[in-house]
Write a structure and sequence with these properties.
alpha+beta, 2 domains, two-stranded antiparallel ribbon, 4 strands, 36% helix
């Protein structure tokens, strides 16, 4: 039988547990970073105050959160 000190056993348990938590956290962080891709159609530019903001609604007209002015999204006819 292997003799091990109680403090060493606790230290090994804590190190293994923290390593597992770190591995799970890093894998979730990488997955979350992949999911944050933002399409150009959701990025709006205010023509009055020059504020760039994100609006995930697919409207042709949006209200600027800074100055309250209405902005129209230009439609790309070329399809690209």
């Amino acid at each position: 039988m292997i003799n091990i000190d109680f403090s060493l056993a606790v230290a090994l348990y804590v190190i293994i547990f923290l390593g597992a938590v770190l591995a799970v956290w890093l894998s979730n962080k990488k997955q979350k970073d992949r999911d944050l891709n933002l399409d150009d159609k959701f990025i709006w530019f205010c023509s009055v105050c020059a504020y760039t903001y994100v609006n995930t609604k697919q409207d042709l007209i949006s209200v600027c959160p800074r100055c309250g002015s209405y902005n129209k999204k230009s439609v790309d006819i070329s399809g690209g």
